[in-house]
Amino acid sequence: MKPYTIDFDLLTGICKSGKVQPVQRRVSQMKMQFADPEAAQKAIDSGDPVLYEFSTLLNDEKKGTLAFGSTIIYPGKIGDEYYMTKGHFHTILDSAEVYYCLSGKGFMMMETPEGDVDLQEVHPGEALYVPGRWAHRSINHGTEPFVMLFVYPGDSGHDYGTIETKGYRKLVVERDGKPVMIDNPKWK
Ligand code: PAN
Ligand code: ZN
């Protein structure tokens, strides 16, 4: 592979040259992961909004490479739960990841298979290190798009199934206008 340069916008995370098209995730793709599936169904019926989109600027999936890109979580709620990403473990569980907040603000909800839980709030100019073994989900509790750059080992892989089946141990919901972390009543 040869060195190369690619653009993306610092505020929106979008690759303006169009070399990479973002992957969009809508409510219908995550209905059962929200605490209130009825509220999710209402959102689906009224236009199925995009919750987030991400652009993987490079990932050739080989050992020794770095995958990188940007992710945008839009502001909004399903019931009282903020828009969020699906979240995943890396298939090679020890693979770490670095996130750097470009604009907006939000949380990273993280947990290990052993049950440790950590919630970190990030703002523009802050980097977050997600160590290996920690599942990670981005949550936008702000009013602007929450945009981050990410970098991880190219051969990490993504295990979505564990989170889809078990759910996260904790959720972030709005109470009296503020975000609070609560136990996930559906966690298995
Ligand atoms: C990120 C995420 C991106 C979208 O690139 O893949 O933010 O979130 P989901 O993958 O959970 O839908 C990353 O963590 N890659 O490893
Ligand atoms: Zn990841």
Describe this structure in words.
This protein is mainly β and 188 residues long. It has one domain: Jelly Rolls. The model has no long low-confidence stretch (mean pLDDT 96). The site of zinc ion (ZN) has 5 residues, from loops.
Q: Give the overall silhouette.
A: globular
Helix and strand element order = EHEEEEEEEEEEEEHEE
Second-tier CATH architecture: Sandwich
How do the strands of the widest beta sheet line up side by side? Answer: 1-2-3-12-7-10
Question: How many structural domains can be distinguished in the coordinates?
Answer: 1
CATH superfamily: Jelly Rolls
CATH topology: Jelly Rolls
Give the helix level as a range of percent: under 10%
Uncertain parts: none
Ends distance: 44 Å
Oligomeric nature of the chains: single chain
Classified by CATH, the class is Mainly Beta
Main features:
6-stranded antiparallel sheet; glycolysis; binds zinc ion; mainly beta; binds 5-phospho-D-arabinohydroxamic acid; 15 strands; about 190 residues; Jelly Rolls; 3-stranded antiparallel sheet
Task: Give a summary of the structure in a few sentences.
Residues 24-175 form the Glucose-6-phosphate isomerase prokaryote domain. This protein is mainly β and 188 residues long.
Lay out the secondary structure.
Elements: E1 23-26, H1 37-45, E2 50-58, E3 66-73, E4 77-78, E5 81-82, E6 89-90, E7 97-103, E8 106-111, E9 117-122, E10 127-130, E11 135-139, E12 146-153, E13 158-159, H2 161-166, E14 170-175, E15 178-183
Antiparallel strand pairs: 1-2, 2-3, 3-12, 4-5, 6-13, 7-10, 7-12, 8-9, 8-11, 14-15
